[in-house]
Each structure stands twice: as structure tokens, then as C-alpha cells.
Amino acid sequence: MNDLFEYSDSLNAPFQAFPGNWKYVKPHWHYFTEMVYLVSGELHAEVEGKQFVLKPGDLAIFHPKQIHAFADFKSENDEALYFYVIKFDDMILSNTTPGSPKLPKLLQSAYGKDKNYTMNHVSAEDLKYNPVRMFFEYTIWETRNKPFGYDIKVAAMISLILTELIRIWQKHGLQFSEKTTFDQFSSKDFSVLEYIDKHSSENISIEFLAKQCGMCYSNFAKQFKAQYGRTCKEYIEFVRICKADSLLLYTDKTLDYISQEIGFTDASHFIRTYKKIRGMTPKQRRSKDL
Hints:
This protein is α+β, with helices and mostly antiparallel strands. 39% of the residues lie in helices and 18% in strands. The protein contains 10 helices and 11 strands. A 5-stranded antiparallel β-sheet has the order 1-8-3-6-10, covered by helices on one side. It has a 4-stranded antiparallel β-sheet with strand order 2-7-4-5, with helices on one face. Strands 9-11 form a two-stranded antiparallel sheet.
């Protein structure tokens, strides 16, 4: 069973920028931030179980560790699919003055008052008076040609895009948490999310995960839900369901086979959990595009 985790070499390649037109990207996550700007066609995107449709001029942003996927979505006028992608390590971002906002910290601590507004999707209407497409094209050109100082310009372009997005989010009620955030679930020796990803087909002990993080069970459970918005058990189930999607959509494997492959004891348990998370049965999902 393929892992959801996508390795990124942040030391040697702290950013990537390129155009694309592929029809499907399976559920995955990484430590990079990823932005997708749709030039033409339509994309059906999903992040952490929430779905939205990208239309030309829209932008999607996937924050580090968010499980996301997208697929071609037949447009009304049959436009060919084409989009721009920028992936980057937040730590490449710099600030011009000591008092300027720390963009990586803003992204980590931002939350919206309007729960119906997803910060992963920015519409063409919101971007109408912003030169975001130009910033994407400059970044792709600089990354491809690598003239002198290209890395400085790329970091500046990404900062400009994020600054525009933060201003848009603020109009939609964005606020910033005053709490200092830090990742207590990963270190150079152990990552809870990577471990769950690699061992999702097994019986994962939450007590073991807590011990690896140097926490008691109750504190681990509390902190995990606070950071990821679901309990550790719910997150493990969600990872299994994300892996099931690829098997449902792109193979003809039976539900019994899939349930065993992704870590459920039987097909009935798999079907119940799938419907709880996706709001539909595995068979209904199989007939959909994403």
C-alpha cells in the first residue's frame, strides 16, 4: 500500500515552481506549503476531507501536513486543463524589516471566524485586482532559468503572493492566534504523522505514539486533537480512508480486499467508517471522479 507522505528535500530544493496539466493527484501530504493557480479548465480539489471546485483564476493553498488531492473536473466550455504550482519550505521566507510580520508564523497561527469559508480556496473574484498570476509566472521563469539571485527573487515573489492572500483572508474574518505554536509531534528521529502513514494497515498503539513524544496518554490525546482538529484514532481512520480512495477509483479490487489492505478488520467496519467520514458509501465513491 503506497504511503501518503511525499518526501521533499528542503535542504537542497527549498522551493519548486512549474506548470502542469495532469488529470489526477492522489491523496498525499508533505512538510512543504503548496499553492496551485488554475489557468484553464476546472479541478475538483479536496483537503482534509473538504471538497471545492477550482475554476480559472482560482487559487488553492495546501498547508504543511494537510492531506490533499485533486482531479480534473470537466469544465462547461471544455477548456484544456492547465495550472501553475509552487511548493516551498516556509522557512525560506524572509522579512524586510525587524518589525514586519513573520509569514511562516502567521500561516501556522491563522484561523477564520467564518467556518463556512475555507482558507484553502481563494476565488478569482477575490484575486481580481491582485497580480498573483504574474507572480506565479515570474517564479516559474526564475526557477527554470536560474539567473543570478534567482533564489532571492523567488522568496520575494512567494512572500508577495502570501501577503496578498493574508489581506484577502483578513477581509473574510481572518484572525491570528496569540499562542506560540511549535511541532511537538515530530523531531529528527520520529514523526507521529509519518509513523501513522507507514503503519496505517497495522494495529497502531496510541500509547506507543505518546511515549515516543515523551507524553502521557491523556496529554498526548489532548494536544493531538488541539493541533490537528481530530483525535488520534480519528486521524488514523482518516488516513486509511484516504488510501482507500485510490484503490476505489483506480482499481477493481473488492471491498473485502481493500478493507484488509488499509487496516480494517472487515468490510462492514470499513463501509461504516467510510460513510461516516465521506458521507457516502465506498460504492458511491467509486462512481465519482474524486
